[in-house]
Amino acid sequence: MTSLSLLLWIVSGIVLQLAIYFGIGFWRHWQGYQALRESATESGLTVSPVAASAMPEEAPLSAWSGYRTFRVDRKVIEDAAQSVCSFYLVPEDAQSLPAFLPGQFLTFRLDVPGTAATEQIVRCYSLSDAPRADGYRISVKRAVPPKDCEVPPGRSSNHLHDHIAVGNRLQVRAPSGHFHIDRSDAPVVLIGGGIGITPMLSMLNWCLNEQPGREVWLFYGVRNSRELVMKSHLEQLAAAYPNFHLRFCFSDPLPEEVAGRDYHFASRIDVRLLRAELPLKPYHFYICGPTPLMESLVPALEDWGVPDAHIHFEAFGPASIKRKAAVPQQAATMKSDIVVTFARSGKRFQWQPDAGSLLEFAEANGIAVDSGCRAGGCGSCQTTITSGEVSYGQAPEFDPEPGSCLLCTCIPKTSVTLEV
User: Fold this and answer.
1) Does one domain contain both 168 and 192?
2) pLDDT confidence of residue 3
3) Distance from the CA of 217 to the CA of which of 25, 115, 315, 354 falls in 20 to 30 A?
4) Which of these, 199, 231, 214, 230, lies nearest to 130 by C-alpha position?
5) What is the CATH classification number for the domain harbouring 258?
């Protein structure tokens, strides 16, 4: 046998082995496909003969710019205290809506009657349900002043509760915000204090619809059962999904309420409770609630050893939350030679390191600036930067346009000229 013949025999053997290998792989794949097809048929589903990966996908709808008119389709009271009302909103133009990320919020421009005339105010409210193509839902708590305090009640929440009826129209910006659940299969812990439950409802409903096998814990803290929002809905989900673990935490239970029947724990939500309940796993924590809850819980989770990247919290007004991994302010902000120029007003002032935000600095110097949430969420105070740079202690929820900034959450990094 010649060397050429031997080489041909070797090559033929290799080709034959590869053919057998790929043939077996294809046969196993075909058997799996047939089994999946039969299972789908038995379940009443239709299966296209074209592979799913080859089917064209519809391009996602893009968010609209500016304000869009929505009509109130339904109003539903959600708690026994009748302090939380859900508003079901449908677009006036009847066009499909872009999907949002569970946990995001809507921005509203409301015409609120004042003592002399109607005033426009801007407020942000979290979406409280999973994304739908035909409508959105927000759930708003009526804000009342604290006892023995002359602070007026919340203007926007009381306006929505008392003056916005089914059929009324509202001006709404597209969903936005950086606080939303991720799409991985990592186990997740949702923590909602009071009306902070609203983005948690959006995350929970989406997760159980789209990822029913994902491990989800919800710790929901209120004073007592009168403040629970959508209690029956949550209990039905807990009964239907074994991977969903529901915990009601009452800080001040009513005398007739019984542990184990009406609630799980007679305490506030803290790390001690989390450590006692949660198995040792790499959870992602999502937190929304009153500032005291986040101020105590976020640092405590870090002390427990939870990685910074696994701790997420609502950014409406959490500027005071101290993060160990937070980047210190630029040294330039401590300089005394920074000058802030307000171009339209024709005024220049030397920056003071203790002035707060640029919005507060402008107001302290008699310069009126449109503002809404004052926490980087609504974009009302967006202002063009003519020259210079600013810095943010924490990235705002609203993404300002290039060349502009949100005065409510930034400070000057260098001398800066603002178009206001």
Assistant:
1) no
2) 66
3) 315
4) 199
5) 3.40.50.80
